[in-house]
Amino acid sequence: MIIESSLVDESIWVPILVLGFVAIAVFTDLRSQRIPNWLTVSAFAGALVFHLAVAGWTGLASSFCGFATGFVTLLVLFLIGGGGGGDVKLMGAVGAWIGAWPTLLVFVGSAVFVILIMIGMLIKRGAVANRSLIKPVVKQKLPYAVPVALSLVFFLLLRM
Predict the structure, then answer these.
(1) What's the first-to-final CA gap in the chain, in angstroms?
(2) Which residues, 6 or more positions from 142, have their beta carbon under 8 angstroms from its beta carbon?
């Protein structure tokens, strides 16, 4: 059964729900350097149910395509050592909420934010002036939920 569109405005609910889920992911990633399965799996399932209820089979297909885009994009990086499994599932769940093309844009934006954050860390530690400090800063882990959240907020603001 498709919910009457006047009852559920996707342009309002999707940003609220995806930002809420990503905010929890940022908190857990900063606190424990983990993004728990209960969060990513429930966000993914919630996106599927929401899009199926609001847009029917087309919404479900769009949600699955978004999931696949986010999941596969980060899976490639994970396989070459560029992130954790929680990051892969995070991008998959984000993709399930926002769709395939927006997920690619959020991914590219998150890469830009990773670069900017790393440059900021280098400057803060004085590594620009002292090259011996560059390696320890570059090897430091960056919770990936943070640049994803920044990119997602930027993307959603652009769509307003």
Answers:
(1) 29
(2) 114, 117, 118
Residue 32 falls within a domain, yes or no?
A: yes
Task: Name the one residue in this structure whose structure tokens are 């059964």.
Answer: 1
Domain that holds residue 109: 10-159
Tens-place pLDDT, residues 54-108: 999 999 999 999 999 999 999 998 999 888 999 999 999 999 999 999 999 999 9
Cα–Cα separations (whole angstroms), residue 80 to 70, 87, 97 = 16, 14, 26
For the CA atoms of the chain, what is the radius of gyration?
A: 17
Residue 5 lies in a domain: no
Tell me, what amino acid is at 157?
L
- Distance CA(10)–CA(154), nearest Å, equals 18
Query: Does 141 or 69 have the greater pLDDT score?
Result: 69
CA–CA separation, 45 vs 64, rounded Å? 10
What's the CA gap between 105 and 118, in Å, rounded? 20
Tell me whether residue 3 is in a domain.
no
1: in domain: no
Whole-model pTM: value is 0.88
pLDDT, tens digit, for every residue of 8-58? 678 889 999 999 999 999 999 999 999 999 999 999 999 999 999 999 999
Count: domains in the chain? 1
